[in-house]
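Usage

Read records sequentially. Each one opens with the input sequence:
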Amino acid sequence: MKKKIFSIILFLISYAAYANEGDESIERHDNEIEIIKEEQSALWEAVNKGTTLNSFGSLHFEKYNNSSFEFNTFLFDLELKSSIDKHIKLHSTIGLKGIQDAQGNDTLQIDVTTSFIDFIFWPALVFRAGIFLSPLTKFNLNYEDYKLNLVSHPMLAEIIAPSPLSDLGVGFTGKYDLIDNFLSLNYNAYIVNGFNDNISSGIEGFKNAEQHFGDTNSDKSYVSRVEFNVFDTLIFGGSYYYGKFDPRGTESISAYDFSYTARLFEFEVTGEYLVNDISGGISSTDGLPFPDKLTSYYTEVSYFMYPDFLEVSHDSRVNISFRYDRGKIENAQNNEETTYSICLGYNPYQLVKLKSEYQFNSGSLERGNNDGLLLAVAFKL
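and closes with the structure output:
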């Protein structure tokens, strides 16, 4: 009898201990859930605080000697930037482009211009992966219309490296101050898909050779850029590109670029020189031999004024800009063109720009011998 009573007491003690342990386990589990919820809430709060949504766009009007006055291009981009923390940043840009082609057909294009993630070890070493703007030209890294002093893009950004030019890949970028507040260095070095073989042997050049998500062969391309900034007064740099572009991986492109910007008082001079060397082969676009070389360069001179009667904000200003632009495609016809442009621009606000440009064209590339008037309204919100 005593043994049975002892066993019952032992069982009750064990059950009470087990029940108490179970209550503690449930309490620990509830605490863990609360901690996870707090961490998730803190993460989303950090993401929301570090997230910005911007939009930028432009509307273009054109009238050339061989065409009627028309709304030629409408551009609208949505830009999303998000900082998860100080070491991880996300960036995406989706572009909407409405254009009228040479045959008068209206087309609407929706493109992913950028979609990448940055892992920031420190400002001089940032690992980047995804779709990003190619650093093949300086112009491509600053293609947004509200940043430009003229309406039109130079020929290198239309025929040789059509802007905006994006690519899928991985690599490193960063900025390093060589001399504090005086001399800095920016660099980009990426492994990317590169161009495909839709390169025209005629005047279209590289307009259809961009590829975002696929690759024509198993070889990757390399593109890099280094730029020096001296007190934000003299900025100069260069880019290099090399890659195979045909399905067999036998034909290659080598590209070299040099750019500069100089600012003195109210003057600004900027320019760029780009060369694309093609190793050979037959164009899949028109069945003709690829051009041996595509060359383009331009120089812009701008003068900025701040008239009182046009001042509607602290950032109001007027610019008068001139551009000399030349392009050449070395093929059987050796197509080339020269353009002289003069532009009057007005910024009522920093991120709103009204522009009017007149072009004098001669040659056999983008505009031929047709002079033209171009107007544009550009903005960022």
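Summary fields computed downstream for this record:
- Residues 1-49 form one domain.
- The chain has one helix and 16 strands.
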